[in-house]
Amino acid sequence: MVVCIVSVIVAEDLTKQFGELVAVDSVSFAVEEGEVFGFLGPNGAGKTTTMKMIQCVSPKTAGKLTVFGMEVSTHQREIKKLLGVAPQENNLDPDFTVHENLMVYSRYFDIPRAKAERMVAELLDFIQLSHKKDTVIEQLSGGMKRRLILARALINSPRMLILDEPTIGLDPQARHLIWDKIKSLQSQGITIVLTTHYLEEAAQLCNRLVIMDYGKILVQGKPDEVIREYIGTDIVEAENDPEVIACLERNTTSYDVIGNRVQVYTNNPQEMIYSLLKECELGQITARSATLEDVFLKLTGRKLRE
Predict the structure, then answer these.
(1) pTM above 0.85, yes or no
(2) Interval 245-284: pLDDT, tens
(3) Per the domain annotation, does 296 fall within a domain?
(4) How many CA atoms lie within 13 A of 228 on its CB side?
(5) What are residue 251's phi and psi, to 5 degrees?
(6) Considering only CA atoms, which of 47, 27, 41, 31 is closest in space to residue 292?
(7) How many structural domains comprise the chain?
(8) Domain holding 260: CATH number?
(9) Residue 244's pLDDT band (boundaries 50, 70, 90)?
(10) CA 115 from centroid of its chain's CA atoms
(11) What is the signed CA dihedral for 77, 63, 65, 147, rounded to 10 degrees?
């Protein structure tokens, strides 16, 4: 049986400039139908700008970008009808109740009132806010607001959902509830494109992802494959000591010095620990699984970005 893979977003040498600033610098990627695709990167990396071009709210400067086979420069209206967007900021209308926020938003898509009422009831049940339908926005918790924004993005039954920092500022319980909803939506065949600063979230949710910095894509692929390629399966940590460094240099072992610790990247932690204990004068030594955060920090650095 031949599986046909359909790319619902295709970018080739996509570029966005603001005057002399190149915010997105000739990036190329494709998003497949039904997958969760993540954009990761420090502040100012270009990921949100890329998302805005996909949404047809920021025109591209150069390159090619198609969504559902349509060029974003000429088919904005048709593309927007197929998208649901959950922005990072809370832009719910504070003058309306939970139910009224969704009903008013449904009018932008010319959804008949009776159908909209049914959809709103289903969405409130889906995000577990039916009991809050008559509550004004100011009385909702942060997690409730994020769930309502997600419901609003689904009011037009989109084929693709764009989520900008979907769980920002949420406690672990609320975050995991949002994760469950995202996985449920994917199981229904909805393509999901998201940005997040939570690397654990990206590893949990994304089938594939890109890491961007200074407008360029540094790496793209499946989370576990990216980790193995750039770090290895595990990290062995030891004290940052000149004798340890000299020993690692003699053994041509891949490592990084991070503060008062040395991180050694390996696919065989037991063998690495045995070798280091045998050949190097080590104090405390520990081993742990490598994570997407390790890749992120290795590629983009540890300097704070404002």
Answers:
(1) yes
(2) 888 787 766 788 888 888 888 888 888 888 777 777 677 7
(3) no
(4) 7
(5) -95, 5
(6) 41
(7) 2
(8) 3.30.70.260
(9) confident
(10) 32
(11) -90
